[in-house]
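A student in our group prepared the protein record below, which I am reviewing. This is what I was given:
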Amino acid sequence: MPIYILLTNLTDEGRKTIKEKPGRIMEVNKEIESMGAKILSQYAVLGNYDFANVVEAKDNETIAKISVELGSRGTIQITTLPAIPIEDFIAKIKAK
């Protein structure tokens, strides 16, 4: 299945929610899985983003639906990137 990188930033409302209820992160993870994706790894990060998630979903439409659903709540802003496994990338470059 395709892999996607979700880079997220908390909004002011999102920071308030996480501060008051940190377990909300795990609740959202369950929601993501109920919408057809699987979280492979998740990190809180420093810098331009607050979280980096590696997610598996069946197609672009599924991950787009998840991004719209989560983003529409007003607690996060999401940048969604399709990811190509490096072995597949190398194989495509070598293909003639």
